Amino acid sequence: METIIKVSDLVKTYKVQRGKKGLKGAIKNLFSREYEEVKAVDAINLEINKGEMVGYIGPNGAGKSTTIKMLTGVLQPTSGSVRVNGLDPFRDRIKNAFNIGVVFGQRNQLLWDISVQESFDLFKDIYEIPEDLYQRNLEIFDEMIGLDDIMDIQVRKLSLGMKMKANIVASLLHDPEVVFLDEPTIGLDVMVKHSIRRFLKQVNQEKNTTVILTTHDMDDIEELCDRIIIIDQGNILYDGNLIGLKDEFITNSRLEVELKEAVSIVELFNDEFKINKRKEGLAWEIIFPNRYKPAAIITKIMEKAEVVDVSIEEMSLEQMIKQLYEDKSLGSDN
Questions:
Q1: How far is CA 176 from CA 85, 107, 170, 273, in A?
Q2: Predicted model pTM
Q3: Parallel, antiparallel, or unpaired for β 178-182 and 100-104?
Q4: What is the rounded distance in angstroms from the CA atom of residue 133 to the CA atom of residue 188?
Q5: 3-246 and 251-314 agree in CATH topology
Q6: β-strands 252-259, 307-313: how paired?
């Protein structure tokens, strides 16, 4: 597969002033200042192939926004190398801008007082988009997400959902190889979120556009991304798919059974199983290692009692990531 983004030993450090406390400290700060270096990104390495949809996630201050700014050419790395479609994003900022699309949350990139159509026409001139490609893309995007109802409206009069739709389309008009999306569904209602996710999937499938998504909405990640990169304190903690994340970090599953009559099932299982009694023995919670199959556990219970209902609780992506951060925190204390 063709590698479109390659990052090697990427580092970004900032100088942060260490302020002295109290009145005396404030006076001293006027004459002498002390600084310390903080690594926002700490020697990360990654490769992203053309056409991938990648979720790049982490808590606030983890280093994800700093990474994206280096990939888009906004920030210069302290050390290491970045290549996006063969270009150095910072040194080749103009060429890189023609190859990428960017949407940063609710920061509007369209002109406030003109219509969406006029804004798109302006983007056509800025990116030097050939007329036939421009018209073809407008037709394609109109079929995918519906643009007719917003084209003649001033940007400032658009609803939040319509504005996000217009901004995403604007970022794709010039057929970028890579599009960076930061919180593209923040603050939107369920139906608009669904529409934008479906649109992004279609663009990815039909144009093979590489999508890098940063978001705190785990539903965006689960619905759109085949690959997840988790960063914290400037280091990559995980790079893989959802199944791999679960296999690597989630060791137990939870099952709850409801029985027709109160029967004890404790003696059916060994010490690896945590069995909790519910409803005076009419229901039982079973927490068990992932290597055991739920179907086998249920079969064993059915040999002793009549099962009325079964529920299997899968850990959500948000819970998985929370556990990953907690495990890392515990490990760093040792």
A1: 10, 19, 11, 52
A2: 0.77
A3: parallel
A4: 30
A5: no
A6: antiparallel
pLDDT, tens digit (0-9, with 9 covering 90-100), for 283-297: 888 888 878 888 889
Q: Are 78 and 37 in contact (CB under 8 A)?
A: no
Kindly calculate the radius of gyration of the chain based on its CA atoms and give it in whole angstroms: 26
Distance of alpha carbon 88 from alpha carbon 93, whole angstroms? 8
Tokens matching residue 269: 């299982």
- For 227-276, write each residue's pLDDT tens digit: 999 998 899 988 998 778 777 766 778 889 898 888 888 889 998 898 88
Backbone angles phi, psi at 192, to 5 degrees: -70, -40
Domain 251-314 has CATH 1.10.260.40: no
Order of strands across the sheet that contains 3-18: 34-49, 3-18, 79-84
**334 pLDDT above the threshold of 50:** no
Cβ(268)–Cβ(305) under 8 Å?
no
Which two tokens mark 76? 């210069």
Q: In the sheet where 274-278 sits, what is the strand order?
A: 274-278, 283-289, 252-259, 307-313
Q: How far apart are CA 288 and CA 310, in angstroms?
A: 15
Per DSSP, what are the bridge partners of residue 229?
A: 56, 239
Three-class DSSP labels, 11-50: EEEEEEEECCCHHHHHHHHHHCCEEEEEEEEEEEEEEEEC
Beta strands in the chain (DSSP E): 3-18, 34-49, 53-57, 79-84, 100-104, 178-182, 210-214, 227-232, 235-240, 252-259, 274-278, 283-289, 307-313
Assigned token pair, 2: 């063709």
Residue 212 CA to residue 53 CA, distance in Å, equals 6
In DSSP terms, 274 is beta-bridged to: 287
The CATH homologous superfamily to which domain 3-246 belongs is: P-loop containing nucleotide triphosphate hydrolases (3.40.50.300)
Domain positions in the chain:
3-246, 251-314
Instruction: Report yes or no: 320 and 245 within 8 Å, Cβ to Cβ.
Output: yes
What confidence category does residue 305 fall into, taking pLDDT thresholds of 50, 70 and 90? confident
Taking the C-alpha atoms of residue 272 and residue 289, their distance in angstroms, rounded to an integer, is 7
